[in-house]
Amino acid sequence: MKWLANWVMSRRSRLLLTRLSHRLPESGIIADVGSGTGHNAEAIRHWGRHHVREFDVADLHWVGPGPELISDSRIPVEDQEFDGLIMFFVLQYPMSAEELLRECRRVSRGPLLIIQSTYQGRLGRIVLTIREFFWGRFALRLATLAGLVHPDRFSLQPCHDFTRLELIALFARVGFVVVEIVPAEWWRLGVSRDLFVLQPEVL
Ligand SMILES: C[S@@+](CC[C@H](N)C(=O)[O-])C[C@H]1O[C@@H](n2cnc3c(N)ncnc32)[C@H](O)[C@@H]1O
Q: Which one in 36, 109, 141, 145 has a CA-CA gap of 20 to 30 Å to 61?
């Protein structure tokens, strides 16, 4: 079971990261916010060009050193500490996605690479809700039963879902310029795992 779960998660990380390897800075310190199992951070470390620090509100890691625990969307580091920041499939969870994004903007002097599922239309919203359940609470339950993680009353309950336009508006409110959007439609079911490349707006 552990072997299979590792294979699935490692393969997923490789696929996610091929979408953005050339968009990360050449080297430096990268923050992975909402790092989950740790597979994405480990895959970046494996390239050998970056130091990666993980942050999460819960310790769900089963590979790598694990996250520094955070709360209230506060990342306890100096301004502009990081050369880049990744955040995959996280924005649906915090009460205020805007607050978390503001904090990400504060701590990174480089690009923010965000992958977030977005929906289009009524069907897309239903499909996204089901997908969130399977990749969120269901996967967490399986991983807990398999003894891979030991969450402390943490449920992965989403508070929001987003359309692409809602996210673009949110990024603008926080002061980001959207440099690039790379959609990846999921089976033409009205759901896309969008990659957003963001840079802080220069005032
Ligand atoms: C669906 S998992 C994604 C994990 C990982 N990014 C990935 O793609 O494999 C969502 C992660 O976001 C974390 N999370 C939830 N709310 C958060 C918050 N306010 N700040 C940082 N991380 C948060 C959860 O603990 C969980 O690890």
A: 109
d(CA 8, CA 196): 24
Pocket test for ligand 1, best of 57, 59, 140 (most atoms within 8 A of CB): 57
Q: Is the CB of 34 under 6 A from ligand 1?
A: yes
Is residue 119 a contact partner of residue 190, using CB atoms and an 8 Å limit?
A: yes
Please check whether residue 90 is in contact with residue 38, taking contact to mean a CB–CB distance below 8 angstroms. Answer: no
DSSP H or E segment with residue 3: helix 2-18
Spans in the chain with pLDDT lower than 70: 153, 203
> Is residue 143 within 8 Å of 149, Cβ to Cβ?
yes
64-91 tens-digit pLDDT: 999 999 998 899 999 999 999 999 999 9
The rounded Å distance from CA 50 to ligand 1 centre is 21
Q: Which domains does the chain have, with CATH numbers?
A: 2-18+26-200 (3.40.50.150)
Across 120-175, the runs of DSSP E, i.e. the strands, are none
Report which of 62, 11, 60 is spatially closest to residue 36, judged by C-alpha positions: 60
Predicted model pTM:
0.95
What totals of helices (H) and strands (E) does the chain contain, helices first?
6, 7
* Vertex 161: Cα angle to 54 and 123 (nearest 5): 135
Residue owning the nearest CA to atom 12 of ligand 1:
34
The CA R_g of the chain, rounded to the nearest whole Å, is: 16
